[in-house]
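so my prof wants the structure for this chain in the tokens format not the other one, which i didnt know existed until like an hour ago. anyway here's the sequence
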Amino acid sequence: MIEPFGPDILPAGIRARMVPEVNGLTVHLLEAGDPGRPAVLLLHGFPELAWSWRKVMPGLAAAGFHVLAPDLRGYGRTTGWDAAYDTDLRPFRLTNEVLDQLCLLARLDIPHVQAVVGHDYGASVAAWCALTRPDVFRAMTIMSAPFGGPPAATAPALPDPAIHRALALLDRPRKHYHWYYSTREANGDMWNCTQGVHRFLRAYYHHKSGDWKDNKPFRLAGWTAEALAQMPTYYIMDHDRTMAETVAPEMPTPADIAACTWLTETELRIYSSEYERTGFQGGLQHYRCRTAGVGAADLALFSGRRIEQKSMFVAGRSDWGIYQAPGAIEKMQETVCTSMAGCHLLQGAGHWVQQESAETVTALLCEFLKTP
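here's what i got, hopefully its the right format
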């Protein structure tokens, strides 16, 4: 039986428990602050866990909030999901992820949250929570992944394969990481990689962080092979490389690792020990839903709908995630979110903004949550 994290693992002020009967799941939940206070729901990305919020949760609790951070479906110590490649992917579709959060709140007897906050893939879940149930999710902050709104009401089509052919035909043949993550081999490539899961994750986190000095993102001209290929190889990979092979040359030196205060070796070991146990397929199922169009018709039901409650966007200035979907950040600010309280790009941080710049992120969230 899977047990929740013990107090020997968790920072002071954070506790863990298992919450059963949550839309077919038993959810591993991290909490901080007193129940009965205004609740804030934090949703993590890939390849992360609820653990990614450890540096933010105590500050939010000290500011008077009941802070909730679950391991999402497919991740960590949450159980009840299927890691098989050939499983039915429908439980991993975005609308069911929203239902996971609604059911979790119902099990905790929390009728609504003051805000839902999401990072990376969790930003997609948070945005759909806010879009579809504004009565429950009263405000929204998303990080690193701008939300471009629901798809058009016209019949949702599968992603155009032309972009993949075009990437493969470049002078330096490339491939998009979403479609690599959707392959049968991707999980094994990372789980059984030569360098081991711990060193793989160290290189992966470093490569996408503000510590990697070549992360200097800019707006791309459009969704073309030539434009996309300007991004680093962790997004637009070399055609013949796995992700483990892609990040291996970027492994930081021992001195760089020792200087990495936002992700110490002890903190990284929590991630690596969990992924060594579970593999990565649970998180990869979400990419497969996106590339195969699983649940796309559900999303098209909300065509034209906007997020009207108060919203905020936060990312590291060195995060390519801001621009990887050309036009999304502009559409989010100008059309999709009608009550944007701010769009903050934090100097010195990359993709893992809530870990790299935890104090600033906590301060921004506290101000956002306490301002009408």
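also thought this was worth mentioning. The chain has 16 helices and ten strands.
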